[in-house]
Amino acid sequence: MARTLAQKIWDDHVVRSAPGEPDLLFVDLHLVHEVTSPQAFEALRLAGRRVRRPDLTVATMDHNTPTRGGRQAADDVSGKQMDALEENCRWAGVRLYGMGSRHQGIVHVIGPELGLTQPGLVIVCGDSHTSTHGAFGALAFGIGSSEVEHVLATQCLPQGRPHDLAVTIEGELPLGVVAKDVVLGLVSRVGISGGQGSAVEYRGSTIRALSMEGRMTICNMSIEWGARVGMVAPDDTTMAYLEGRPHAPRGADWENAIDAWRGLASDENAPFHQEIRLDAATLEPCVTWGTNPGQAVPVGGRVPEPADENQERALRYMALRPGTAMEDIAIDRVFIGSCTNARLEDLRAAAAVIQGRLVHQNVQALVVPGSTQVKLAAEAEGLDRVFRDAGFEWRDAGCSMCLGMNPDILQPGERCASTSNRNFEGRQGAGGRTHLLSPPMAAAAALTGHLVDVRSLV
Amino acid sequence: MEPFRRHQGRMVPLDRDNVDTDQIIPKQFLKRIERSGFGPFLFYDWRRNDPDFVLERPEYQGASVLLTGANFGCGSSREHAPWSLQDAGFKAVIAPSFADIFRTNCLKIGLLPVQLSESSVRRLMELAQEDPAIPVTVDLQARTVSAAGFSEPFEMDDFARDCLLNGWDDVGLTLRHEDAISAYEQRRAAWLPRVPTP
């Protein structure tokens, strides 16, 4: 019977199936970070259990890590959380890329970078943006701390089957429209719960033409419209990205892997429960006006009339009037970073806009590379100089102002153009106001001091 | 996990859609390494900034069933969100829909996520607004919600219900299938990625 990509991976990972019970799935890779793991390790110890497969478990520090001043700059509570992760990894024999490691970084940036994220795997992490890894044709999803404990103890998870949802995007992207605009455009059309219960497969010529970085940006934000996983079938772009990475298969193993990966794509007549179709030509550079990622409009548009109380509330929080041109909205801060948009390609795209220009005098702008490797690579090609010369701060890797668990936060009332994934109330700091957009659009906002169509600057 | 069979308590109506986990518990409280004590931080910013916030009103103090809008718990996977609700005394959340990870997290800790139609949730909210002292009964055995002339069945699959009714340790359940896990491990391809123990 014809099967989808998600169904094939699912079937390959069923350890046990029984009527009336969720399938028990095997987990190939468990990524761990400091914030959602301490309670899981503690519960494991209290129950007298051990980590079943430390060799399939990798940890890093990213959520609360300072982006300047090193570990000693962390507050006491964050420091304790990092200490706990170190102790837990030592106890369990788990590889940890902690602060100071050259492989430290946002968990969803380092997995692909190390070549650990591969097609056909089941990947979990105690973080909702685990869907990022789906860009490689992996079945990857975020879990809570109880499930982290479950995977540590058993390397398995009981899971109910998701629905299969195809998002088919065809055509060439208009000039100046990038992956972030695709996903913001999509979420604004389908709403933030449109993907609930689904395994989403992104396909079509637009997706095929994207780099791995672009695909990761789109899969990353699958959770922002409620999907359980978001994935892209592996192809030549995927193989080219993976070949030669530290944990990618080599020699005869590489050939075996390629054979297996080629067979993963959805069969021609594979049954999807639903399909959403999008014409690439209708997409534009996008920016959010409200307090969830679905509240987005083309940058040339206006703040909409509120349709209900929830939207009225969002406008009040954002201090915006209906009818205001998006380009008339002045900003105080710019954040280029996060698991959505802090890979080398993202930094290059922002730097290309900034090159030879200066950050507006009213704006404080920040670049936080997604990983230490991204930072080093960017410095090797001089991107740090481009940013610094323009007046950006160039920081160390981590989640930083995407969620503001470290010292990088907005002050109440400050308005930020951000390449991150959530514009929820207070997300970047209590009382802070977030406008989500792409790296080139964030760069353009930094230069002009207001939201602006990047196409008018290049 | 504490078993959940039947609960009777008072309701508090939080009439908003898409309440995200950043609102349920803001990030600055995720730094603790303990599993308990998150109750005081529940809806921290809303409680602090809105003097009329429904959970702060005297008539709703002691409520143990939260009524809320669609897509409750969207956003991050932080289990701290259901921990904070549970620690603040909530036993059940009733909404037209839940975000997937949040719902799973609730089931793992015995906080009951009850999905009812939008009109049923609306009716319960009206009841709680008219008389905050009115009791609601959430019966998991019978899969019903009832209050003052209101009675509705809700769906919950048998397996999830059995786990909650018995308070089963689901890690323990999985470990009963040790043989199946070992057999699966034996047949995995040798080239799959591994990170050797340091």
How would you characterize the overall build of this protein?
The complex is a heterodimer of chains A (about 450) and B (about 200). Chain A is α/β, with parallel strands linked by helices and about 450 residues long. Chain A contains 15 helices and 19 strands. Chain A has helices spanning about 5-10, 40-45, 75-90, 105-115, 145-155, 180-190, 205-210, 210-220, 235-240, 250-260, 310-320, 345-355, 370-380, 385-390, 440-450; strands spanning about 15, 25, 30, 55-60, 95, 120-125, 140, 155-160, 165-170, 200-205, 230, 275-280, 285-290, 295-300, 335, 365, 395, 415-420, 435. In chain A, the strands form 5 sheets. Chain A has a 5-stranded parallel sheet with strand order 5-4-3-6-7. In chain A, strands 17-16-15-18-19 form a 5-stranded parallel sheet. In chain A, helix 12 runs parallel beside helix 15 (about 440-450). The mean pLDDT of chain A is about 95. With about 200 residues, chain B is α/β, with parallel strands linked by helices. Chain B has a single domain, classed as Alpha-Beta Barrel (Aconitase, domain 4). Helix content of chain B is about 35%, strand content about 15%. Chain B contains 8 helices and 7 strands. Chain B has a 7-stranded mixed sheet with strand order 4-3-2-1-5-6-7. In chain B, strand 3, helix 4 and strand 4 form a beta-alpha-beta unit. The longest helix of chain B has 13 residues, at about 120-130. The mean pLDDT of chain B is about 95. Chains A and B meet through helix 2, helix 3, helix 5, helix 10 and helix 11 of A and helix 4, helix 7 and helix 8 of B.
